[in-house]
Amino acid sequence: MFYVSVFFQYMAQYMKTKLQYRADLFVEFLSDLMFQSVNLIFILVVFGHTTLLHGWTRDEMIFIYGFFLVPFALFGAFFNIWDFNERYIVRGEMDRVLTRPVHSLFQIILERMELESLVGGVTGMIIMGYASARLHLEFHWYDFFLFLLFALGGMLVYAGVFISLATISFWSDARSSIMPMMYNISNYGRYPIDIYNRVIRYILTWILPFAFVGVYPSAYFLGKKEWYGYAFLTPVIGLVFFMIAVMLWNKGVKRYRGAGN
Amino acid sequence: MDKYFEMIRIRFLMMLAYRTNYYTGILIYCINIGAYYFLWSAIYNGKSAIQGMSIEQMTTYVAVSWMARAFYFNNIDREIAMEIKEGKVAVELIRPYSYLGMKTMQGLGEGVFRLFFLSFPGLIITSLLFPLHFSSDIRTWGYFALSIMLSFVINSQLNLLAGVVTFFTLNNEGLLRAKRFVIDLFSGLILPISFYPHWAQEVMKYFPFQAISYIPSMIFTESFRGQAVINGLLFQLVWSIILLFPLQLLWKVAKKRLVVQGG
């Protein structure tokens, strides 16, 4: 209960500071929208030259991309830890975090919240709406809850992988470019998994499970029965990877010695 | 002239000190090229050619576009915006060189560094991973070298333009992002211009963006032949001259109305 109330208080403060600079906020929304449209334009242009991509139609590809945007936006809004090493370890901010009455990871999530990323989720839902209208998809009442579950699962997959990477800083405070590398790998999850070769498919499913952010859960809503098993694994994989990350985090915090004075 | 050469050298050495960052840079580029390789393979799916390009040419196109990007890409627009914000620009302006020239030379120093430490090793690695086709015609390589030089010039001019606008708006994050978006999409990095619908291609003829990535990559993959190569190079040359005018004009006005923030 305490965590929930702290969470909402941080959120309220965040909104107050952001709404001070409305013009900046507007520019940010607009540019996010532009970058999200790049991939959409890619798909639209490419399907001017082909009708099927390994059995996936244009609108199915668009749907996958739309779905991908939702967990990605959630991740972007709440797990801003790509600069954890520089911000917290090198500058010694971690010392302060450890004195706070909530779990250190939770404290960092609160401090680094970026709610404006959630707009990407809205864009994603609009894109999905467009695609499902064209595909004449039928939804049941429980699909809404499954959607929430899958989106959260996808977010946890992302969070799990990136938090695990951030914990490397506890053992070695050298700067590394592994985060941007992982970011680029995660883009593979936006496209149908069967276009890749077997090795990459295996990696994207079990080792760096980014396929669970886009294509697997979308397959359920698109009625692709052969992928249902994977689709329902989404929340499980998310939880497992997130729990591994938290475990690594707790281990790392024990080792943490502080830098600077 | 000597002092500008010195700037290239210093930037090169500065980058050299942090070269380990670039080994992962190569990996990142390979990852990106890989994603597009699989996508394009799925798109071709047995088709021998789309818009006159074979799958082999397309893979080479993707690889060479990314590797060329390492050369022409720079952040001088952001650097200028930053120096204006911090007031450093005042000191720069009283130094005995052209500010914009200095920025360009720094960009060139970075570009040359990345050419040797990212593009060349990267291209060798990607050619081992993916089926690329390198031309055996020495002229193609010559035209390509000329073409990426012009890419660098045009991309830098656009960056300088965007940077100089900061003199007027003081905070132009929005413009910088919009510029990146337009260049991502219309330079030909993610899609060859010839794949766009006809009307879009017509519109893009009137903009300099395809000179940045599309033309050199088409030359390299020999998708442009004969007259098309010459036309492409002329297109680049003409734009690199045209862009000088707004740049000079803006720069003149900008210097007059410079407001140093907190400097």
From TrEMBL, chain B:
Pfam families linked to this entry: ABC2_membrane_6
Residue intervals passing through the bilayer: 21-43, 49-72, 112-134, 140-169, 181-199, 228-251
InterPro entries documented for this protein: ABC-2_transporter-like (IPR010390)
Keyword Secreted applies: no
Assigned keywords, A-Z: Membrane, Transmembrane, Transmembrane helix
Stored PANTHER family: SLR1174 PROTEIN, SLR1174 PROTEIN-RELATED
The protein, known as: ABC-2 type transport system permease protein
Source organism (scientific name): Anoxybacteroides voinovskiense
